[in-house]
Amino acid sequence: VAALAVFFAIPQDASADDSGRVGALLARSREVATQQDYEGTMVVRWRAGGKMRERTVAVRVHDGTLRLGHGRVLGAGDRRLMKEGGQSRLIWSEPPPSKLPDPSDKYRFTVLGAAPVAGRATTAVAIERADGSAGRERLYFDRASGLLLRRDQWDHGRLTRRVAFVRITDPVPGDGDSRAASRLGAGAGNQPPATGEAPDDVSAARRLGDGFELMGTYGRPDGDTQLYYSDGLFGLSLFAADGDLAWDELPEGGQAVEVGDVDARVYRTPAGSAVLWDDEDVTYTAVTDAPLHEVEVIIADLERRHEPSTLDDIGRFVTRPFSWG
Amino acid sequence: MTRPPEELLSAYLDGEVDDDERALVEAQLEESAEWRAVLDEVRETRDLVRGLPVRDAPAGFWEGILDAPSAAVVSLDARRTRRSRVAAWVAGAAAAAAIVAVVLVPRESTVKPRVATLVNSHAARSSVSEEPVSQLAPVATPVKVGR
């Protein structure tokens, strides 16, 4: 309630649609995040099991290298290293696509008045669905540096996630990204990355759900496929594995939900929701920070695509899990 | 509090304990940070090994296994016994990684998604396109699923 009260108390100082200005703020925040040197502390809060949970994360960016959690997560350029099982593992080294979808068709952007975050002046931005449905987002950009200092998400009037600096030093210009990425690669040793090119016979729907466009298909060493979609504001990874979901062996703590005729299990994590379900001998896991409503639409979309209307559809469907193209 | 028997925690993770053992483990987990820490270690080790790639056996591989000394056969079969379970996971993660990948983690008819690993992979991918700090900070401490 307090958070909502603070938000709605921020005076609006612009028109109802500031998509161009907000787009520039978003783009700049992505660029400058590792181009300046700073350190600080972030708090990650998320709702799970009816309670708000919280983590504190140390952040340090120096000469283009991002260190989070005292080195548990490292990033530079397109490379991401993460400690798993006691050792650093290269979990991403693929370049991103050149351009994200334009989110202005789906969302309405409003620049709000100034609101301090970690003692720094910010430009606060409100993002809502253009159709007025549930799900709101608030972003707070540092006025001096352009860094994204805080991100709040609401769903049906309740705060569901917050990622925010509670302390940060004055950002100063840092070294470039190119040398940092090569240094990070050297630290990964000779291990293969956890992701790579998708198998040749994987073809995926180019658009899914409500405005999510395919950004890339990737293969994982366990044989699973990862499809990454974006609607320009939220990302969604869809993983597929051959076989039925082992419902009885899932970890406790998930929430059973029904989406149409589909039974699914939802786990709330600090990075967003993970939704598991199976269909026709394929197990799917969707991971996203988007509101759950978006996943429901995607599941319904997948179900619709699975309904074979012609022999050709049947043939394509049984070939590979992602043969809906 | 004494260090918990890792084979019991491993069996607990696999759902292969009886009601009394489950009650014992859960009571100790409730009370003891050490038990919880060891449970995390066992889970991470197991997840690491299960994350190894599954590849088709090269030509002659199975013949080699069948011709191997009996000790090698025992170590492969031992995964079905609780007492050797942890040794199989840990040893497999290092020297016998290839054997573990091919033999101990076969394709299953049912799937148990490693949710925490998939969440990490999603966060990493998102952070390449999106603002990286806010995407990666949530996974900067190990993601716990189901607790």
Largest sheet geometry of chain A: 12 strands, antiparallel
Global geometry of chain A: globular
Low-confidence stretches of chain A: 1-15, 309-325
The percent range for strand residues of chain B is under 5%
Distance between the termini of chain A: 45 Å
Q: Please trace the helix and strand order of chain B, writing H or E for each element.
A: HHHHHHHEHH
Rg over alpha carbons of chain B: 18 Å
Low-pLDDT runs of 5+ residues of chain B are 52-107
Indicate the overall shape of chain B. Answer: elongated
Separation, N- and C-terminal Cα atoms of chain B = 22 Å
As an assembly, this protein is: heterodimer
What is the strand tally of chain A?
22
> Level of helix content of chain B?
55-70%
Largest sheet of chain B: none
Largest interface: A-B, 77 and 50 residues
**Whole-number average pLDDT of chain B?**
63
| Helix-strand string of chain A | HHEEEEEEEEEEEEHEEEEEEEEEEHH
Number of strands of chain B: 1
Q: Can you give a write-up of this model?
A:
The complex is a heterodimer of chains A (325) and B (147). Chain A has five helices and 22 strands. With 325 residues, chain A is α+β, with helices and mostly antiparallel strands. In chain A, a hairpin with a 2-residue loop joins strand 1 (36-48) and strand 2 (51-62). The longest helix of chain A has 15 residues, at 292-306. Chain B is mainly α. The longest helix of chain B has 18 residues, at 33-50. Chain B is elongated, with a radius of gyration of 18 Å. In chain B, 33% of the residues are buried.
